[in-house]
Structures are given as C-alpha cells and as structure tokens.
Amino acid sequence: MQAIRVMSVVGARPNFMKIAPLVRAIEAFNARPDVGRRLLHTLVHTGQHYDADMSQTFFDALAIPRPDVELGVGSGTHAEQVGRTMIAFEAVLPAHRPDWVIVVGDVNATCACALTARKEGVKLAHIEAGLRSFDDSMPEEINRIVTDRLAHLLFTPDAMADANLAREGVDPRRVHRVGNIMIDTLEAHRASAERLDPAELAVRGRVAASMEPADAPCDGRYALLTLHRPSNVDHPDVLQALTEFFIDELAPQCPLVWSLHPRTARRLRAFGLWERVIRARRVWLLEPLGYLDMLRFNMGAAIVFTDSGGLQEECCVLGTPCVTLRSTTERPITLREHGGVSELAGNSVERIRAHYRELAGAPRRVRRPALWDGHTAERIVSVLAAEGGTA
Ligand code: UD1
Q1: Which ligand 1 atom minimizes the distance to the CA of 81?
Q2: pTM higher than 0.85
Q3: Nearest ligand 1 atom to alpha carbon 110
Q4: Element (H or E) spanning 21, and its range?
Q5: pLDDT in tens, 356-386
Q6: Number of helices and strands (H, E) in the chain?
Q7: How confident is the model over 119-134, as pLDDT tens digits?
C-alpha cells in the first residue's frame, strides 16, 4: 500500500486549533478500509510559543498528540525566530524525508518552515491560504505572501481568498477552497464548552485576588477583550488610551473579561498601567485562556473586542457582535459589510466607542460562510491523498 509522508508544523497558539482537526482527519482516513493509501503523519512544534498556557494547555484540551519533533526556538526578534526555525527545521527534514510539509496560518513558524521545505525540495501545502490584509507593516502579511508564493497546494477558507490568489496569478489548479479549519475545532468542542460556567472560569483564572467572586461575570452581561498586536500594545500612548477606555468608561457600563497575552502583560507593567488595571472595578484580568474557556466566554459575551483574527471568525459562527481593534483585516468575510458580525475600529477610542454603541445590545446573529461546516480537515486530507507522494 502506498504511504504518503506528511509533516505538519505548529509554532504558536493560533496554530494549535488548526492542526488538531487535521490530525483527527488523517487518523480517520487511515482507518478507512476502502482507501489504497495511508498518510504517515509527523508533527513538528517549532516552540515559538512555549509557556504552558500558550502551548501545552492546547495540546491537552484538543487532544493533539505529543509532537514527534520539538525545535525549541523560543522568543526573539523576527529574524532570530525565523532564522533559528529554519536552521533547526532544515536539520529535521533529511531524517523524515516527508513528501509534504503542511503549514498553517501566518506566524513566523509558518513562513520559516515554508521557506526551508521548498529549499530542501519538499512539496508544500498551506492551510488558510489567500488571506490578505493589504497592510505589509504587519509581519503576518509578509508571512502570508511568502508562504502562498511558495506553496504547491493552497487550501483557502472562502471565495475572497480565492480572488486574492487569482489576482496574484496563482495557478487555480493549486487552489482548493475547503472552508475554515478552525471551525472544525469549534464544532468539535462546542458541547464541552457549553458545560463550563464563566463565573467559575473567571475566579479560577484571575491574575489578582482583588476581583470579588460576587462580581463574577454571568452570561449575556459582560464584554470580552483580547489584545496582543504590536500596533495596539507596544506604544505607551496607544495602550494607555485603550486601557483607560476599557477600564474607566466601558467597565462601569458592562463588566469586562480581559484575557491577557504575555506580550500585553509585559507592556502594561513596563508602561506603569498594571496596578490601575488590576485595581479597576468590574474588570476581570485573566491569565491567557485555554481553548475551551475562551470558547465559553465568547458564547456568553454580550460583545467581543479583539485584535485576534481567529476570534473574529469564531464570533461569526457564534453570532457574537465584535469590534475588531485593527484598521485592516485579512478576514473581510467576518465584517458586517460582507455578511459577518464585526466592525473594524482600529485603535481610535472614538471609533471603538461608536461601534460599541452601535453593537451593544444587538442580538446574536449567527453567520456561517459556505464550507465553515466542521468538515474542512476531511476535504484537505482527500486532496492530499489524491495528490499522492509525487507531483
Ligand atoms: C504571534 C504571531 C501572531 C499571533 C500571536 C498569537 C507572528 C509574527 N505573530 O505573535 O500572528 O496572532 O502569536 O499569540 O508569528 N511570549 C511568552 N510566552 C510564550 C510566547 C510568547 O512570554 O509562550 C512572549 C515572547 O517572549 C514575546 C511576546 O510574548 O516577548 C510575543 O511573542 P511572539 O511569538 O514573538 O509573537 P506574538 O506577539 O505572540
């Protein structure tokens, strides 16, 4: 029986929910009696995200098998992260001789392993291809453009991504619209998340005991905030204005659940804002949330404020009104003008306030783009199996 050697790569938090369904779909494919091929899968973790609550928690919650290879590259500047990943990944390829390297998303690990695979003559597939913010000051945009330029197979989530690739002259035979693989993970865990209690999660995850359990968030009556983009958290003036809006103006109207990224925690401390945030009333400052906890908070939120691309997509399928704290998005399908649930506000407090007023109290309206149906990974595996080990 023909074996196709497939090596997939994860590096940072947003990758883990995209690889979990792929692993599951490969197992299901291999268990089918009617197929004449098997996919031999190896998982590589570059180690871009390494804290337990940015990495291992997700492996546990999503039942992702232990990586076969851990590169342990850790933090650093972009060049350090990409360079160290390329050097370490290059050393791994000869021992495993994969037919395909599969990368997901747009983080530094994605781009570094894409480049290395191609230079080593290994075929490359990219899941979540074709997304463009048209803002090349974002490191993720560079990663997307480079990865898509190099990929032999481009798995896209929607027609807008297909159109971007067509404009760039990508051969349409390489492009497969398969839907959004993150929604596979969401659908697989929706029922378990529903059983969780947001008040309990908040008390367990709080970073300071000053938050009173009696004020813990309850369904439909809190706003959920995540922030991590350099454009929002790396400049003292910007972070201070955002923080003041959320803790002084928003929280008195609507209790706030704020899941902290390590970069943001570090910046709040460096800019002298930390004490104010942890003392603020009706603000639940939480350690980075695990997958199920974040899903549960999203299900119960009155509104989400975020600069995360993945959360914008999850809000669509859950119907949560969303104010996106960015001035561009590579996921326009999530915007209200394209049938989604989100409005772009950038980091201007005036625009955030205006969109909050517009969306607060809006009913949940589930928006599910075509093929965001929980079966994306199966479609990807079918294409890979049909391609075989040579192309
Ligand atoms: C990365 C991705 C971004 C993604 C985000 C989600 C790139 C270019 N960016 O940005 O697309 O949305 O992850 O989290 O790849 N840190 C820790 N512990 C960790 C991980 C990071 O303390 O487990 C610290 C690092 O030391 C660094 C900061 O957090 O100071 C940022 O980490 P980094 O991986 O460089 O980029 P992110 O901002 O997380």
Answers
A1: 35
A2: yes
A3: 15
A4: helix 13-30
A5: 999 988 889 999 999 999 999 999 999 999 9
A6: 17, 13
A7: 999 999 999 999 999 9
